[in-house]
Every structure is written in C-alpha cells, then in structure tokens.
Specification:
Number of domains: 2
CATH class of the largest domain: Mainly Alpha
Strand content: 5-15%
Helix content: 40-55%
Order of helices and strands: EHEHEHHEHHEEHHHHHHHHHH
CATH topology of the largest domain: Hypothetical protein af1432
Shape: elongated
Bound molecules: fe (ii) ion
CATH architecture of the largest domain: Orthogonal Bundle
CATH superfamily of the largest domain: Hypothetical protein af1432
Strand order of the largest sheet: 3-2-1-4-5-6
C-alpha cells in the first residue's frame, strides 16, 4: 500500500519548519510522498489569508526542490472553513488504496479535542505528532497517534509575515514574496517609528508613480522606496557596523547622517534578500543624490518631495513627472539651497 503523509496549514507563507516536518515523515515514518494541503480558511484563526493562488505558487516552488512533495488543493476547492475531518473523509474515499498519516505539531496535539470530530479523525488516519527527541515524556500522544521525532525548526509563518527569521524560508519563496510584494510593507514596520513607516510608504508610492510616468519598472522603484530608510532608525553604532562590513573605510568618514543609505543597501541584501545592484545603488546614494541612474534619481526625488513632509511640492513633482533628469537637477538645487539656509540659520 502506498503511504502518504498529509501536512495541512495556511502556508502563509510556507517555511523551513514545514519542509523539515515533511522530510522527517519521509525519513522516520517511511512514507512515499508528502502532500501539502493549503487551507482555504483555517478554523480557530481569525486572520484573512493571503490569496490562495500565491500560497499555491509558493508551495510549487518548494515541490520543485523536493520531488516527493506534492500539493493537494482539496481544501482550496471547498467553500467555507477547512476542517480536517472533511478533508480526510474526501481523501480516504477518493484514494482507498493509500494509507494516510496526518502530521501535526505538539501544540496541535495538545488542543486536539478542539478539532471537529476528533474520534472519527483517528479512525480515518494515523496521526503523527512531531516533536523534539527529548520531549516524549511531556508529549500527549494518545491512542491512534504515533510520535515523529525531529528537531523542529524554530520559526512560524506569523514571524515571517512580520519580517523576522526571513532566512528560515526557502530562498525561492523569499524571492517570490518580494516579487509579489506579499508581506511588504509589514516587514519594515517593526524596524522604524510610525512616522518613518508612513514616510517610507509614501515615498514608495511616489517612486512607483514616477517610474510609471517614465516607463520604468514600477515594482523595482517601489521596492527601492519602501526600503530606502530601512537603516535610519538604527543606532548610529549599528549603522556603522553595516557600513564597515560593505564599504571602504572612507565611507565612515562621511557625515553620520549619510550612513543610513550605505547601511540600508547592505541590510536589504543580507536581511531581505534584495540583490539587485540597481536597487542597492539607489538606496546607498539616496541621501546625497550622487547617482544619475534613473531609479536612484527617482528615490532621491521622492524622498525629498514626499507629500507627507508638509510643504507644497506639487509643482516640483509635476516637473519630475515630465522630465526626470531636469526635475532631479531642480530638486537637488532646491535641496542644496535649503541645507545652506539651515546652516546659515544655525550660525546666527
Ligand atoms: Fe534617508
Ligand atoms: Fe527618507
């Protein structure tokens, strides 16, 4: 009889913890395949899930690297909440010659009585409870369940959604989330003040509009805008560390107000997986406006003309929409005049 392990979840997004669990079922329980079952709407959870098509696409990327993993879309196709009991009834009648094992974590095992129809669930399939090797004593493995020893990967989808532990998702999935702007801007929110967050979103919006006006890649411009101040609220010592890691020593001799651009261009790569040299260049030069690459000009302009800054920048925005290069020169000149005035006032 063919043996299949079933792993249900929101997969919003799929991460290394899910993959490790499926792999453990292959290694420890000797199953032939692991079927990943994305929920349409998870019971016991309030949150609205990311569009099912995106979650499916991310799972497809995982299956490409793990040939024994498959996707089962039975829950996505069914309306309403995704109860395991309905899924198991469907699968066992549809595939009578397959022996199913449903994979759950220790937390789910503890609240198993809250699941719909737990008695029937245990008749339909074997349940395997994944947990650390040393946790067996505390583990609630009841009749009809088996223990699946594994070292769980300490990560949850909600941590990833809020921008933490981004290295614990497959790189292909991380690139997909960036490409489709799935968890941005939420990723950057915990890294900055509310004020800076609003500014970053507003700058990103203006970047996108400028890119559109000049027939450039709108998504690339938006990414540049959303990340441009990612390092600005970090303590100066921490900014300096990032700068020192990626730039020649003279970068740190520049005014500390400039550092966050350099630091940001390194953080986007190391933390968020943005490797595009055009985006990195635009972020690193955004403070002074020293690059004439169109994306660098766009983020410099958008940063200085951000409507949230509280002065009327509409005429300059209009000028930049019509002519990027000359608009950029105008904004630079205005900025220089503003800084000069500020300097003179300080000296008074
Ligand atoms: Fe900045
Ligand atoms: Fe800014």
């Amino acid at each position: 009889m063919k043996k299949v392990a079933l792993l249900g979840g929101s997969f919003d997004p799929v991460h290394n913890g899910h993959i490790a669990m499926g792999q453990a079922a292959i290694d420890q329980l000797g199953v032939d395949e692991v079927w990943l079952i994305p929920a349409r709407k998870a019971p016991l959870k309030e949150r609205v899930l990311t569009n099912g098509a995106h979650r499916l696409n991310m799972l497809r990327l995982v299956c490409r690297d793990h040939p024994r993993f498959r996707i089962c879309d039975v829950e996505l196709k069914r309306n309403g909440e995704s109860f395991t009991i309905d899924t198991l009834e469907t699968l066992t009648s549809q595939f009578p010659d397959i022996e199913f094992t449903w994979l759950i974590g220790a937390d789910q095992a503890k609240q198993f009585d809250r699941w719909k129809n737990p008695k029937r669930l245990l008749e339909l399939a074997r349940f395997a409870v994944a947990d650390r090797n040393d946790a067996l004593d505390e583990l609630d493995v009841r009749e009809g369940m088996v223990y699946l020893p594994m070292q769980p990967v300490d990560v949850s989808s909600s941590e990833i959604r809020s921008g933490m532990k981004l290295n614990l998702m497959p790189e292909s999935v991380r690139q997909y989330t960036l490409e489709h702007e799935l968890y941005l801007p939420a990723w950057i929110k915990p890294q900055m003040s509310d004020h800076r967050f609003a500014h970053s979103c507003s700058v990103a919006r203006l970047c996108r509009e400028l890119a559109k006006a000049h027939h450039l890649d709108e998504h690339k411009a938006w990414l540049t805008g959303i990340f441009h101040d990612i390092a600005k609220d970090l303590p100066k010592e921490e900014q300096a560390k990032w700068v020192a890691a990626a730039f020649p020593p003279q970068a740190l001799k520049e005014h500390p107000a400039i550092w966050h651009g350099y630091a940001g261009s390194e953080i986007v790569t190391r933390v968020y997986g943005v490797y595009d040299p055009i985006i990195k260049n635009a972020i690193s030069t955004h403070v002074k406006g020293t690059s004439y690459d169109p994306y660098a000009m766009i983020v410099f302009i958008s940063d200085k003309l951000d409507p949230l800054r509280g002065y009327d920048s509409s005429a300059l925005i209009e000028a930049c929409m019509n002519d990027l290069y000359n608009g950029f020169l105008l904004v630079k000149a205005e900025n220089r005049a503003y800084l000069e005035k500020e300097r003179q006032e300080k000296e008074k």
